Amino acid sequence: MDFKNVIIMTDLDGTLLDDKKNISPRDMDSINEFCDKGGMSCIATGRGYSMAKPIADKLSLRIPAVIFNGSAVYDFTAEEFLWQCEVTQRAREYVKAVMDKLPDVGIEVLHKHTVYVPALNDVEKAHMALENVKGDICSLDDIPKEGWLKVLFAYPEDKMPLLARFIDENCYEGTNRVLSAPFFYELLPQGVSKAYGYKQLLRLTDSEDRFTVAA
């Protein structure tokens, strides 16, 4: 069977990856067989560059990927951004407000190839350890002003409603807000989602007429 006109797009965490963040041999074999028959496999993930790259390398992606929960389309073969959408310039102000209100929160500012960590807690430590990512622990003032593609807040599940309510009431202008896991709350550019990022990928690769399957 010829799959040259077919693209399969899959999420990673909770979909392609198991609880240990691995791809099962059976799934890997199926993906390889699909690609050998002309199909194209791509990923759309909330992960930023650092956390998506090890999986992208295992998959040997032939087409770009949607990363940062839809804020960027990245070509892991050429190692370049093809498209990106930055979080509102007010994001720094929002992060400062959250840090002042909830000083025990963990925060990641995902900036192209770097994960900046202006606030560290146990949830954030566990997250970086699980993904084997070394964040750049720094002050908020040390983070570049431009290039923020996503902000992730890490907080214990039982405290998350308090954090989400504060963000929804005080950090809503110009943002899309997503509870991506029981202990992760994200700020994205307004209007951005994985689906929106995937539309950009199809446009950039002249693949809008291809048959697409999303998982």
Q: What is the C-alpha radius of gyration, as a whole number of Å? A: 18 Å
- Alpha-carbon distance between the termini? 21 Å
The major beta sheet can be summarized as: 6 strands, mixed
User: From the helix content, strand content and strand pairing, which structural class follows?
Assistant: alpha/beta
Q: Total number of helical segments?
A: 6
Fold blueprint:
Layout: E1 6-10, H1 25-36, E2 40-43, H2 49-59, E3 65-67, E4 72-75, E5 80-84, H3 91-101, E6 106-111, E7 114-119, H4 122-131, E8 136-137, E9 150-154, H5 160-170, E10 175-181, E11 184-189, H6 194-204, E12 211-214
What does the model show?
With 215 residues, this protein is an alpha/beta fold. 31% of the residues lie in helices and 27% in strands. It has 6 helices and 12 strands. The strands form 3 sheets. The protein has a 6-stranded mixed sheet with strand order 8-7-6-9-11-10, with helices on both faces. Strands 2-1-12 form a 3-stranded parallel sheet, covered by helices on one side. It is globular.
